[in-house]
Amino acid sequence: MRERMLAGELYKAKDPELEQMHANARDILHEFNNTQPNENDKRLSLLHELFGSLGKESEIKPPFYCDYGVYIHAGKGFFANYDCVILDCNEVRIGNHVFFGPKVQVYTATHPLDPAKRRGEWESAHPITIEDDVWIGGGAIICPGVNIGAGTTIGAGSVVTKDIPANVFAAGNPCRVIRKLKIE
């Protein structure tokens, strides 16, 4: 099922391998989310254990939630504020110096529109890429399969359902380009 999941095909999460991976992530997240405020080194160590890769000078404020962790790859200087959720049933690639406001949600997971397939517990997942120097405002939701170009700002509360190009300000539900940014 893991191979099907990563290929973007229909899969069932109730699979022994996936359930064990999810249990491992839950254990690490429980420890991470219950650290003391001054335990920055411990939190960073737990994130390195959880993530597929995490660049230097990165920080995630607890609480933080994800499915597996191993499919999250974040570059240097990544920052996620409180209550971030990354459903990493497929790869999530986050560039360098990307900042998330509070309650940002990144969803690779999706479910079939056909009720019979949903009843059969089928789901799928599509990778997400967020390039360098992106700012995502608080409460934004990034949907499966989306790519966000370098230097872009996503407005708070936006629902990003389609790719967003580089160096723009985009906002809304659904998120759309508001204007190009003059990057110096």
Structure overview:
This protein has 184 residues and is α/β, with parallel strands linked by helices. It has one domain (2-180): 3 Solenoid (UDP N-Acetylglucosamine Acyltransferase, domain 1). The chain is built from four helices and 19 strands. It has helices at 2-6, 16-33, 40-50, 115-119, and strands at 53-54, 59-60, 64-66, 72-74, 79-80, 84-87, 92-94, 99-100, 105-107, 109-110, 124-125, 128-130, 135-136, 141-142, 147-148, 153-154, 159-160, 168-171, 176-180. The strands form four sheets. Strands 2-5-8-13-16-18-19 form a seven-stranded mixed β-sheet. Strands 1-4-7-12-15 form a five-stranded parallel β-sheet, with no helix packed on it. A hairpin with a 4-residue loop joins strand 18 and strand 19 (176-180). It is globular and about 50 Å long. The model has no long low-confidence stretch (mean pLDDT 97).
